[in-house]
Amino acid sequence: MFSSFMLNSWIVATIVAATAGLVGFFVVIRGASFAAHALPLSAFPGAAAAALLGVNEIAGLVGFAALGVLGINGFSRRGRPEVATALTLVLLLGVGTLLLSQSRDDAQLVYGLLFGQVLGVSRAEIVPIAALSAAASLATLMLLRPLLLSAVSPELAQARGVAPGRIDIAFLVIMALAETIALPVVGALLVFSLMVGPASAARNLTDRPWLGLALSVGLSVVTAWLAIALAYQTNWPIGFFVGGLGALAYAVGRAVRGAKS
Amino acid sequence: MVLSDFLSVLAGFWQNGPVQVALAVGGGAALVSAVVGVFTVLRGQAFAGHALADVSSAGGSASLLLGLRPLVGFFAMAALAAGGMEALGARAVRERDLVTGIVLGAGLGLTALFLYFDMTSTATTGAAVSVMFGSMFALAPGTVTLALGVAALALAASAALYRPLLLIALDPDLATIRGVRVRAVGFAHVVVLAMAVSLSAMTIGAILSTALLIGPAACGLRLARRTGTAIAIAAGLGLLATWGGIFLAYDSFYWTPGHGWPVSFFVVAIIVGAYALTGLRGRAG
Description:
The complex is a heterodimer.
Chain A: H1 4-30, H2 33-43, H3 45-53, H4 57-77, H5 81-103, H6 107-115, H7 126-142, H8 144-152, H9 154-159, H10 164-186, H11 191-205, H12 209-234, H13 238-260
Chain B: H1 2-15, H2 17-42, H3 46-66, H4 70-87, H5 93-121, H6 127-133, H7 143-170, H8 172-177, H9 182-204, H10 209-223, H11 227-251, H12 263-279
Helix pairs in contact in B: 2-7, 2-9, 2-10, 2-11, 3-4, 3-5, 3-6, 3-9, 3-10, 4-5, 4-9, 7-9, 9-10, 10-11, 10-12, 11-12
């Protein structure tokens, strides 16, 4: 399990899980689950496009994630946000089915991208993943106060000069970055589970924001490690464990909160 | 000459067996999704609708494993997820979205597992693509009766729920005062929603069925003031997109020889195009 060919996976999983835990905490308190689910799915066709054009996979994923952000933001201006999210998601996925049908990619690849694969990253991808992860984390930490404030009280945030539209877009970009890098390992469909599950548990376990943030990161990393170890042992898909452990974390958090009150 | 080409394509289109099945089942799915979708958009449950469809894929993939009819699998899982969300239910919107997300994640985890078993234990290597992105031209002819039966049942239930549901969507407090059993009606709506998404999951795919559920309904609500009119527009647009998509996908076999374009792509493209066009009218919806 700790042999050299698995080393990349452990390193990458730790990086992306820590970022997911950090960003996920804000996904939970801002109630952005749907966008968090939609963005990685919108990014997924980028891998097919990259394969067709012969460019780097991460570049393709980031490109389509950017289209996802633009789509959600653009459609939201003239309509309900959740309708905008839903239609952006299906539009980009529809383009994805077209790209896949033309590139004749094998089913195994599609499955891996959707549901994750333990050996989904190569050594060469560690550096770009680490860089993107650092960018997402840094942006989150820099925007920590406005992100918290606009989630808790939009009016107060506005009074302090935080433009709600701008912070929403900034957060969409941060989410897109954090999820895109996790996609090759955890899979497009389950990335948001890694963000939402541990973070929801952390929020239920404590009301103190800093402690919650730290717990969220810690739980997310532990979830990713457990999922990799279990997937390696059973040979079952890693997405199954990420989804299951995410739900388990939420259940534990809710039970603890229920016991406290 | 162009016209005669078109007519000969059209003649072959109507006589093609898989096309006939696709037109019938796809039409039923589009109609039900459009009607149920209007209430789903009005109640702000687009995420829940999408989540049910995604989770239904676990049933779709399990049905391949167990040898059940796909529609039965899709529906069973969607109904189970609907029950789960209802049981964990929360009133606050943020908490509701979170619960939806957690159920969605757990359900998709199961999909991952079942698809893995599909691929390792049977020879269905294309299971992931057909479950997630639809298999419009590969529907079993025996499904037509069952699918249209479910569609008819869902439409009848929507008609029965029309007034109370509309009242709940517009003003839950008033609905309670008027004696509407809000939770019961809400749950009935989610079950009908599960029927709608499992029908469209089978045709244009679990993760794309949201297009049929949300797109036509959102267009209808933008164009019409009255809910009845919105439903009619949504139904018309849903049928147009599905049947148009089937025709274009059939025709696309001649565009890029060897491999046609997927139906789901055309359906989604028509629907999102229509939504973008209705947005130009400037009414927020």
